[in-house]
Design goal:
- It is a single chain.
- This protein has one domain (about 1-120).
- It is elongated.
- By secondary structure, it is an all-alpha fold.
- It is built from 5 helices and no strands.
């Protein structure tokens, strides 16, 4: 169950990478409807940079699946999930509350489940 949630979060961040790095001017206006359409072309390189960071989060979560030691697998997952949660909370505060539900909440649930099972 937890690994499925971690995989889902990695998939979300892989999608964000794709959207921000390769589809910013095409799909971006459909996703970020409150952002002025005229600014998408001007912010393309900024969005690509943000997408790259989301890719690093996805890569870290995917990496955790290849770690054999369950202790280290959980620690690596917790680290990257914490990064996702912090980024999602910051995005919710500075951009739109919707980011909390898309990024931070799934990460916080996965963190809680990992910590709960780790100490049981």
């Amino acid at each position: 169950m937890i690994r499925i949630l971690v995989a889902f979060i990695a998939l979300i961040h892989s999608y964000i990478l794709w959207l921000e790095m390769f589809q910013w001017t095409i799909r971006g206006p459909k996703v970020f409807t409150k952002f002025p359409v005229a600014l998408f072309a001007a912010t393309k390189s900024m969005a690509a940079n943000q997408g790259l960071y989301n890719g690093f989060l996805a890569a870290g979560l995917i990496w955790s699946f290849f770690i054999d030691d369950i202790y280290w697998q959980n620690n690596v997952s917790l680290f990257f999930l914490s990064c996702v949660a912090v980024a999602g909370i910051y995005g919710a505060i500075t951009v739109t509350k919707r980011i909390f539900y898309i990024q931070a909440l799934p990460a916080l649930i996965a963190i809680t489940l990992l910590l709960f099972t780790k100490y049981m």
